[in-house]
Predict the structure of ABC transporter ATP-binding protein.
Amino acid sequence: MTAINIQHLTKDYGNNKGIFDISLKIEEGEVFGFLGPNGAGKTTTIRNLLGFTKPQSGKATILNFDCWKQPKEIQKHLGYLPAEIAFPENMTGTQLIKHAAKMRGLQDMAKAKQLIEMFDLDPSALIKRMSKGMKQKVGIVCAFMHDPQILILDEPTTGLDPLMQSKFVELIHQEKHKGKSILMSSHLFEEIEGTCDSIAMIKQGKIISVMQSQDFKHFDKYTFTITFQKLPDFESMQTENFVMKKITKDTLQVVVEVDDFKINELIRALAKRDVTSIREMKYSLEDYFMNFYKGEKHDYV
Ligand SMILES: Nc1ncnc2c1ncn2[C@@H]1O[C@H](COP(=O)(O)OP(=O)(O)OP(=O)(O)O)[C@@H](O)[C@H]1O
């Protein structure tokens, strides 16, 4: 069964802001990454799924329930982590978690306890005294504790330190293993690259591409900016068999792109020369997608 089905959804805020004719399908048991730069329309799409806003046209369903007309039915099966959590500040984390459980009629707090331990959270503090990361952990407990079939997570690792981010990835793997359907938004490719079965990219309110994991997992290129000490080394490097993306004589700098299987070759080439610095450049989201679509597929618009 399709877990989340978005068909031709449009929410136009004017001035080209909003989402326009968005269609996406997330199948049962699938982890789906929703990627896009700031302001691209990720939260707007998610707010429509939650039934918070009415689309001007199109339709979204979760487990075949209409997101706008049947949000209560959906709630029973849904865990939601908002991008910006607005908690009542005068409660402690424990009170809030208990309150959220009561609202859901949840008796069994075993999973909540397990999550609190996993994320090393002390929920006894007042929420207004909590750091952003601690609040995020409380949000994660509330989103996952009732073991929902569907999870919608809006920028879930915001505020988490690297250790906690990797715990979060572990949690996603556990939930996926149990057959949960997960929609996860992010503006960081690396964040969802390792967890998602599919990734959709949204830009200026439109879906510009959808990729399956077998496509993006095979994309392993690295880009390095290398600075040489001496002109002859800088010049001779250009005769080596590497893709030079940029050559700057003034600074004796080259930008080299290599496939992961050619890394050793690059190291050998550099060992012969006097290098003053080498820096790996992270691909931007768009670079990843643009590279992927170069040559192979042409549905990039
Ligand atoms: N209620 C609203 N009224 C008017 N414009 C809005 C409203 N909500 C969102 N927008 C605009 O719609 C666009 C999409 O916003 P949205 O919050 O969906 O982006 P996002 O992809 O979630 O971004 P971010 O990564 O920054 O959270 C933005 O230009 C935003 O300013």
Remarks:
- The longest strand covers residues 2-14.
- Confidence is low (pLDDT under 50) at residues 295-301.
- Residues 221-282 form a domain with the Alpha-Beta Plaits fold (CATH 3.30.70).
- The pocket of adenosine-5'-triphosphate is lined by residues 13, 17-18, 36, 38-44, 83, 187 (CB under 6 Å).
